[in-house]
Amino acid sequence: MNIFLKRPKNAWLFALAPFLAACGDTEMRTLAWPFGVKYEVFVLAFADSNGDGKGDIRGLTSKLDHLENLGVNGVWLMPIMNSPSYHKYDVIDYKSIHPDYGTIDDFKEFVKAAHSKNIRVIVDLVINHTSTEHPWFKEASSGKTNAYRDYYVWAMKDSIRSEISKKTTSFDSDNITQWHAVNGDTTSEHYYGFFWGGMPDLNFDSEKLMKEFADIGKFWLEEMDVDGFRLDAAAHIFPADRAADNHRFWKQFRTEMQKIKPDAYLVGEVWLGPKEVAPYLEGLPSLFNFGMSYAITSVVKTGLDTIGLISKYKEITDLYKSVNGDYVDATFLTNHDQNRIMSQLDDNPQKMRIAAGILFTLPGAPYIYYGEEIGMKGVKPDEQIREPFIWASAKADPMQTSWEQPKYSTDQTVQALSEQKNDPNSLYNFYKNFIKFRNHSKALTLGEIVNTDFSIAEVVSFKRKYDDEELLVLNNISDVEVTIQLAGDNERFDAVAYDSNNTATLDNGELRLPAYSTVILK
After folding, report:
1. Which residues are catalytic?
2. pLDDT band at 181 (very low <50, low <70, confident <90, very high)
3. Pairing mode of beta strands 469-476, 517-521
4. Residues 283 and 424 in one domain
């Protein structure tokens, strides 16, 4: 093949809206659960229905049209249960809605409204730990004979041993900062809290505690009618030296949830390497692919694929599917724990688009972090990667939240959604059109991924195939134009099905691939 590189004269220009292939009336998003694009929401930062500056469930319900228009078929809500913290990952009551967010009835109305738009609801469930203000912990710390004592993990400093739980072997078996004194008494008993003293770890050697969470799952799946759970800190139910117990736990948990709702969707956070992640798939059929998040960001940032991105992807997912043939990869660019993807890509909107292009052409169920579709920015600390969604400039939308004074995503740095809707070249419309194309394509939604024989560092290429539909995907991650002469088996791809910039040309097997563009051939 012949490859030519050319720096375009107008690389700074955004291209016109992409061409959408005619694919029928019914989008795949109504048919393919748990496949399809998902959307992660931090409710506090999203939409405010009562004017207190804090996002809430009613506000989220009023903005479901945004998610429907974007084309997502699932929404993941970061923790919504009662909690003393703004992020709510330290739960006080597992069968509640935080008062700032609304009521149980508000939530039921939200689920009903989401389902009417073919959007399923995924709730963040924090099983690893509670808040120290949870009634269980207050009871457990009141005395060694309390009925809730073995819900948590305890050790006596003087004897340097685990007192009740098998969770640890000794007081100093982990980082000393993971042991915390009760009521400040450093000479007496300590409890185990892997993440923070305000989040004591639960002890799942307790069968009684297991039954509590089976009941909690039933509450959300049956009474609240949610469709599944995002499972926080899934690798930390037991410590690292008890990995096999972690695997066993999730198999048991999945079995219990399937008894309640056979199609309950479980997606886990296991922030480890692929070999450590793989055994979790027996219990968690979907896991967030952190390795690919970093890899996509890396190649797009440098503009060269020096790591063999697709070979790396296939190596990971082939391993996972060897453990669970029904594995559904949960791909994403960044989430609520990472610097926002736009900031990681040097605030470059063209790099942002090609990163999204790779995300939406890979297999699995892609996740969008709220605000990503309008180019929101943010760098840690965490509050600054969870800033208010910008609905309209100058806070003209009455649903605009103000829970946090934004530093990175402001009217001056990010174009508001209301303005982007009317701009065919906006990032929002790029996301919307790309998702629409994906939703109509069985190959992109459900198909397998196949390597190509191209060796072009500027281009991330692969094939997607499902039944009789086969597509050739080419993502130009560089700032130079690439011309490719299709040869051999690739000659049969003779038509452009999708062009993110609407400026690519295909003539007699010669493809001109503009900088920072995704082109899909059929």
Report:
1. 232, 269
2. confident
3. antiparallel
4. yes
